[in-house]
Amino acid sequence: MNKTFIGMIAAASFFSACNQQTPKETPKQDMLLADLDTTVKPGEDFFQYANGGWIKNHPIPGDEIAYGIGELVQKELYVKLKTINEEALKKGDKTGAGQRIGDFWYSAMDTNAIEKEGAQPLREELSKIAGMNTKEDVMAQAAHMHSYGANVFFDEGVTQDPKHSDVEAYTMTQGGLGMPNRDYYFNTDARTAKIRSLYPGYIATLFRLLGSDSIEANKKAANIVALETALAKSSRKLEDLRDPYSNYNKFSIAKLRSALSPGIEWPKYLEQMGVKHVDSVIVGQPEFYKALDKVIAGTDMQTLKDYMAFHLVATFANYLSTPFEQANFNFYSKAIRGAEVEHPRWRRALDAEEGAIGEELGQLFVKEYFNATAKARYEQIVENVRNAYKARIEKLDWMTDTTKQKAIHKLMAIKKKVGYPDKWKDFSALKIDRGPYALNMMRANEWWNNYEMSKLGKPVNRDEWSMTPQTYNAYYNESNNEIVLPAAMMTVPGFKDADLDDALVYGYTAASTVGHEITHGFDDEGRKFDEQGNLASWWSSTDTAQFMKRAEILSGQFNKMVPIDTLHINGKATLGENLADLGGILIGLDAFKQTETYKKGEKINGMTPLQRFFLGYSLGWLLAERPEKVATQLLTDVHAPAKYRVNGPFPNVPEFYEAFGIKPGDKMYLPDSLRVHLW
Ligand SMILES: [Zn+2]
After folding, report:
1. pTM higher than 0.85 for the full model?
2. Closest CA relative to residue 671, chosen from 644, 643, 652, 646
3. In angstroms, what is the span from residue 339 Cα to ligand 1's centroid?
4. Can you give the C-alpha Rg of the chain in angstroms?
5. With respect to CATH, is domain 370-421+465-674 assigned 3.40.30.10?
6. 501 vs 592: CA distance, rounded Å
7. How far is the CA of 602 from the centre of ligand 1 (A)?
8. 526 CA distance to ligand 1 middle (Å)
9. What is the whole-number distance in angstroms between the Cα of residue 580 and the centre of ligand 1?
């Protein structure tokens, strides 16, 4: 108890210090101890035991929907980026990254101009929508809007062809909704029904701000909701989007019309979008496009115009005057995700800038936070985890030798990208000026669209990163058979990498990030891709049956968890992530057992290496979440809420019982017969 108390005080003063300067001295306190809630036993609720002390002492700030480790990592960064922006503005470069950063900042912070202009920056686009006469005009305008990021009717983009990873393909998927996904249009639980009841009011508010009277605004809103509901009805559910075969449907451009949508002139649309050098496209959900055809044909021109105008304004509302931006906040952040107050303008400006030119800022981040020694340490950890996985696969009693050999072949072929890209994106063609802010964002979206479209017909650039180095996240890209680990994901806030003990690092990074991402190559979706990144079966049918039987035990465990109200976790939709968590812990732990720290077995601050490993893993999921955010996540996200990413997998790990003396009768105890035995 005392330890916890002292730790908390130390933590509190430490965090305020690191907002000013990176401390030169090694912090004395132990973050793992400081975070504990010792009023809860590890066997009762491990997440609460590991992180509850910190959570109790750090209530979620009003402007956050969740608050924890990721926010702490980025908190220091936000302050630094703010300074970088202010200095760039002061310096006043006329060209290059300095000009873009400085002028972006000027336009985002120029509240006088933003308030005075209202919706003016969008008037030109709004009048184009108003001037449409035919359904052909509708598709031409849709193509135009997609090019600057207002995705009406459906979603699209350039991706590697899942069956031919050396080829870039144009992919069209379901989309066009103003609420997060189809479930918001139909689910009957009280939370979702409440959000649905607020949606027409939000749409009507935007139309009133554009000049409609209330009666007209409400009518427009009702028609838009009806249009979107028809699209939602033909949209697939979250779990059904995870089958790579059923979401892969290739159509020649010439046949798109006859096969899917007789009313849409696809060749013309694609030409207007800038789709070149391909004669076929991949359609994720063909039934959606059949329905879209009927929706466009059966909807009156005025409603189509209103629908497109609404999506235009909603896409850019955050960059317009306060009434627009407030309406957007009230619906998307407050009603859907539970935020109480907005982030200050400078924070919102930095978030927008991250989306627009994040990689330019990332170069500054890694200079300060991720040196060559850290990069080398984590590259070595990737190899240690990879070897641990190899040893585990070799020992499996349920997998045939042939499939084992192929699995190991794929495992050894996984490419690693650690910290930051070797080659940075070049934003010099992007025009950023001192305003209007909304038009800077529109041009940034256009830059990204051109960047993606220009990939068609060219060899795949396998060096590319899809996340900035300052992102507290990581990914496995099945088409490249690669893991990508941004620098921020390996950063413990306020600590220098060299000061972190192995047990913490192996739990925090080797298991929860490196092991997790590697295991994605072998989860229920990733296992369907081969070592080249192609969708191709390399499993025997007996091995597949064994895999599924074992994986289903895990989805069954998660289906039983009810994080809020009556909303349970969707075991099928979250299976890939939960498999990756469990696999990551097992192989991260095996790799840790090879270290001198583990072999010596010395305690640090009273904790064994094994205990620190599990606490280090839990530190990666240190997060308090608002109920609204949890509810939204359960409907829209393939990741379980943070707490369940600790308490879900741990009962399946034998060493967890050993480390904390978990016994029958404890809540976290599972008899061996009910545990998952996969990797
Ligand atoms: Zn994942």
Report:
1. yes
2. 652
3. 25
4. 26
5. no
6. 11
7. 32
8. 11
9. 6
Ligand 1 centroid – CA 646 distance (Å):
14
Q: What is the pLDDT of residues 442-499, one digit of tens each?
A: 999 999 999 999 999 999 999 999 999 988 899 999 999 999 999 988 888 888 888 8
Ligand 1 centroid to 139 CA: how many Å?
36
Regions of the chain with pLDDT less than 50: 1-27
Residues 6+ apart with CB under 8 A from 338: 65, 626, 627, 628, 629
Q: How far is 46 from 465, CA to CA, in rounded Å?
A: 35
Q: Say how many Å lie between the CA of residue 380 and the centre of ligand 1.
A: 21
Domain boundaries, the chain: 136-301, 370-421+465-674
Q: Give the residue carrying structure tokens 């909807």.
A: 299
- Angular region, 533: left φ>0, alpha ψ -120 to 50, beta rest: left
CA atoms within 13 Å, Cβ hemisphere of 621: 25
**365 alpha carbon – ligand 1 mean position (Å):** 24
Residue 369's pLDDT is 78
pLDDT score recorded for residue 402: 97
Ligand 1 centre from 525 Cα, in Å?
11
Q: Output the CA 573–ligand 1 centroid distance in Å.
A: 12
What are the residue ranges of helices labelled H in 560-605? 575-593, 596-600
Q: How many Cβ atoms from other residues are within 10 Å of residue 329's Cβ?
A: 19
pLDDT at 28: 53
- How far does the centroid of ligand 1 lie from the alpha carbon of residue 516, in Å? 6
**What is the reported pLDDT for 339?**
95
Predicted confidence at residue 490, as pLDDT, reads: 86
- Local structure of residue 254 (DSSP, 8 states): G
Quick one: pLDDT at residue 372?
87
Ion ligand 1, residue ranges at CB < 5 A:
577, 580
- Please enumerate in sequence order all residues whose Cβ is within 8 A of that of 454, keeping only pairs 6 or more positions apart, or say none: none
Question: Quick check: 244 and 534 in contact, CB under 8 A?
Answer: no
Q: How far is the CA of 520 from the centre of ligand 1 (A)?
A: 7
- Measured distance CA(201)–CA(15) in Å, rounded: 41
Using alpha carbons only, give the angle 94, 100, 101 rounded to the nearest 5 degrees: 115
Fold exhibited by the domain 136-301: Neutral endopeptidase; domain 2 (1.10.1380)
